[in-house]
Amino acid sequence: MSETETNSNELPGAFSLFQPSWEALRLNLVTFIELALIPVLIILVGSLLKHAAGVALTSIGEILAIVFSPAVYLTQLRSAQNKTIDFADALKESFHYFWRFMGLIICVGIIITIGFILLIVPGFFMIRRYMLSPYYLLDRDMNVFDAMKASAEDSKKFSGAIWGLIGVMAMLVIVIAILEAVVIWLYVIGLVVYYTYYCAPSIRYLQIKKASKAVKD
């Protein structure tokens, strides 16, 4: 077995991430709710109103969702590191990374989209290469292209671990879509199960970071 395969197989299986992800989510549950709920409530109210007021509120909610997105990733990372962070601190700290984070999301989005347009399969490989790149940027204070490069390099060494993560997340999305078409209360249960896996990507990033350091040492 090659060193690359050994490193990948040494990481815990993707299903084993449910429990640590749930524990990480609970650690900063209030912060997660605030970061997600505020934009959603504003958008919901906007959708109930008519004319200009509704459009304005909906737009404000969508803008806040974008502004809060680096803070959401940062809260996931801090939770995976077993650190508490409140709403104000998450926003304040995330502003340092905001423009780089937005640039990263745009670049990764374009690359993945082009990959799917080409032959679909390349798009999945682009997801594997770059899905953890936001955590590299936030954790190591990297620029956009360095974060993408680091994520791509580690994704080759730990491809099995990342594919497992992608597989479980895709499975959860498919199950939720099926349950939504069956019974609404099953759909709600599906959503709860999905969010217990919410911090799994940040946990996987830290596992890869630790394993990479061990190999270098």
Brief description of this entry?
By secondary structure, the chain is mainly α.
User: Total number of β-strand segments?
Assistant: 0
- SS-based structural class? mainly alpha
Mean pLDDT: 88
**What is the helix content?**
over 70%
Q: Strand fraction band? A: under 5%
Judging from the principal axes of the Cα atoms, what is the shape? globular
Number of contiguous helices: 12
Describe the overall structure.
The chain has one domain. The chain is built from twelve helices and no strands. The model is unreliable at 1-9 (pLDDT under 50). It has helices at residues 3-10, 18-27, 29-48, 51-80, 87-94, 98-119, 121-130, 133-140, 144-157, 159-182, 184-196, 200-216. The protein is mostly helical and 217 residues long.
